[in-house]
Amino acid sequence: MTSTGTGRAVEEFLRIVPGARTVLDEVIAAHPDRYRAWSQGSVSDLLEFLLQAFTRPVLLPLLRAGAPDDEPGVRVCFAYIESLAADPNPYVESSVHFGILEQFLESQDILLRAWKHSLPGTRTKLVAMLEEYPATLHALRAAGALE
After folding, report:
1. CA count, 13 A, side-chain hemisphere, 59
2. CA 109, 127, 51, 53 torsion: positive or negative?
3. For a 10 Å CB count at each end of the chain, is N or C smaller?
4. Are 140 and 130 in contact (CB under 8 A)?
């Protein structure tokens, strides 16, 4: 898997995620002074970009709705996450950790749906994140959910 990193985060978001252009345009229109650079592909704060343009408006609603396994939107979202998770840059890793993975802790259902759709690199990062929450990790393993 090729990594996306900060330099290509917007470009890959627009290329991979259906409806990304609409979401990005809405975010920029709501706060043009703050996010205008995103329209040119420039992201100075990857964490903020992930939260504002991807995780909250796109990914979490799909997971909350319990999108079916064959839902193409879910598959491509996790392909995008996988491309980010492949980047060894600590800044990108931290942004993915806080801007995506920790958002799955919203509920056990969200976490389980995320686990089910996660690709190998993302699953590795998800387990590492869950190790910071040993009670949650233990409960999920005891229930056989992280098999």
Report:
1. 29
2. negative
3. C
4. yes
Token pair, residue 24, equals: 């990005």
Q: What CA–CA distances, in Å, run from 10 to 7, 13, 34, 64?
A: 8, 5, 15, 24
d(CA 77, CA 28): 20
How many C-beta atoms lie closer than 10 Å to residue 61's C-beta?
A: 12
66 phi, psi to nearest 5 deg: 65, 45
Q: What is the pLDDT of residues 65-81, one digit of tens each?
A: 976 766 788 999 999 99
Side chain identity at residue 97, one-letter code: H
pLDDT tens-digit series, residues 95-144: 999 999 999 999 989 998 999 999 999 999 999 999 999 988 888 888 78
**Residue pair 126/97 in contact by the 8 Å Cβ criterion:** no
Q: Retrieve residue 28's tokens.
A: 């920029």
How far apart, in Å, are the Cα atoms of 40 and each of 8, 36, 96, 139? 11, 8, 21, 44
Could you tell me the pLDDT band of residue 83, with boundaries at 50, 70 and 90?
very high
